[in-house]
Amino acid sequence: MKKKLPVGIDDFKNIREENYYYVDKSLFIKEIIDDGAQVILLPRPRRFGKTLNLSMLKYYFENNEEDYSYLFKNLKIKQTAEEYLAKQGKFPVINLTFKDIKENSWPQAEIKLKRMVAREFKRHKYLLESDVLDQYDKEFFQKILSLKAENAFYEESLKDLSDYLAAYHQEKVIILIDEYDQPIQAAYYNNYYDKMINFMRNFLSAGLKNNLALEKGILTGILRVAKESIFSGLNNPVVSTLLDNEYSKYFGLLENEIKELFNYYALDFQFEDLKNWYNGYYFGENIIYNPWSIINCLRREGEIEPYWANTSSNDIIKDLIINSESEVKKDLEILLKGDTINKKIDENIIFSEIDKKVNIIWSFLLLSGYLTFVEKERREMYLYCDLKIPNKEIRYIFENIITQWFEENLSSQKLNILLKSLSCFCAWAFT
After folding, report:
1. 374 in helix, strand or coil?
2. In the chain, what are the domain boundaries?
3. What does pTM read for this prediction?
4. d(CA 387, CA 373)
5. Which of 70, 252, 375, 381 has the fewest Cβ atoms within 10 angstroms?
């Protein structure tokens, strides 16, 4: 029986147990172990495998009552040296995801943040039965669970939980944080940015900076948010973006992986069509295919559609383009013709400057997957990239935004003409 396609499945255990097809990215574990950095930030575009990779790390490293080594049977990580295999099931793990925190107001976001923390405390509720926690710690633990702790305690909760786990397991903690920048984007576009930044700065700094209980911290997101805002108290993360070679082959799909997929499902396909629609992303030295679109294309037996484009409203991109200066619109016209533009890229995004500085717009479009780079070079202290639209799917998004804008404005103009005509008629009729 053929393996199922993991459309929307990002839990590693589920994929391995329920006969889903898995593209073996398990050497990602080895690269994480080899990396000398204690805290690693890995920004990548949405739906390029960030959550699944963190899930894999969790099941590999976590010291759990259940032995999860069977999940890695026949994977590449099992063929590595003993030093890597010895780390399997060794560490306590804190696993947090911010991907669903995208509320319209700070009170709503604050509640979700507290619930997220409480769920992870509940996952480690066995600590309450141990002698590691004194009475004060147990009362604090219970307040976190019941959502009754003061806000400052939630900001310190990542550090506190890692201390408890390290003391109980007699081993340092691995902290996994997925989509750390999702609540920050939501906060910016819903006008509670300062409150969210203050929480995230304190929360991450407490847990990831100078934490003696920390073995490694791995964060994923779409953007590298500027140090002046969220990382002002956290100066130790090593950042590997899609511009870097490190980790470049573990997010998205390589060409040989695509061919293996289509051959496995015995689908006839025009490889050039796949390349034109879903290829073209440069991650470091690798050319990458969009995994979401490829999997959905397979599910539809090779039917070409803009699958990734339809997973988001693209409102942010639309606002940036529509409200941009004429210079940006001229550059977009060049891109739509299939040419490249050379732009200064700032890898640290400051949200308050997204719609104020032109180079921030191009940086945002590049790092979030709406553009790709062809060449890059450093001139003195600055990075410059030749940018282009990676494929037909992304071209569809830009063309759709422009078409919608044209139709909306045309409708508005017609309405204004109608109202003016009606006004003139009323003035004439009643004189």
Report:
1. strand
2. 12-239, 255-310, 313-393
3. 0.90
4. 5
5. 381
